[in-house]
Amino acid sequence: MSQPVWFITGVSNGFGLLLTLRALKAGHRVVGTLRNKAKHTNAVQQIEAAGAEVIEMDMTESQESIRSKVKAVGRIDYLINNAGYAIFGCLEQITYVWPRTPGHGFRRLKLTFVVSQRE
Fold first, then answer.
1. Homologous superfamily of 5-118
2. pLDDT of residue 54
3. Per-residue pLDDT band at 62 (split at 50, 70, 90)
4. What's the rounded Cα separation, in Å, for the pair 32 and 18?
5. What single DSSP character describes residue 107?
6. Cα(78)–Cα(80) distance, rounded to whole angstroms?
7. CA gap 34, 58 in Å, rounded
8. What is the spatial distance between Cα 55 and Cα 44, in angstroms, rounded to a whole number?
């Protein structure tokens, strides 16, 4: 059987980075995403040195852009949508940004993934 393929968003730190390294240690193939490779060079170097591919992908990109990146991976056995962000400040000073958040991106990536698996 071929090695399982993981597609993990938000691999620049925290859970995404840890899960990427664990899956690689188990001998699995991992494609990890983050918004800006230049901003997270240490994480990118660590992940690539362990054997994974890292691509830039922002969850607010166009549906077609996300779709082309998912399709380029080929078979995906595990989709881990871990991308996130933080807003800092007093609650009453934070403006409404939901359409540009990972919640919106999550639905778009999930839809893209499901459609790509049917093709």
1. NAD(P)-binding Rossmann-like Domain (3.40.50.720)
2. 97
3. confident
4. 11
5. H
6. 6
7. 7
8. 9
Residue 106, amino acid: F
Q: Count H helices and E strands in the chain, helices first.
A: 4, 4
Q: Which two tokens stand for residue 88?
A: 């800092």
Q: Give the position of tokens 């409404």.
A: 96
How far does Cα 84 stand from its chain's mean position? Answer: 9
Q: Which residues pair with 30 in a beta bridge?
A: 6
Q: Is the per-residue pLDDT at 112 higher than 90?
A: no
Phi-psi bin for 9: left (phi > 0), alpha (psi -120 to 50), beta? beta
Do 6 and 80 meet the contact criterion of CB atoms below 8 Å apart? yes
Domain boundaries, the chain: 5-118
The residue type found at 101 is T
What predicted TM-score, i.e. pTM, was given to this entire model? 0.76
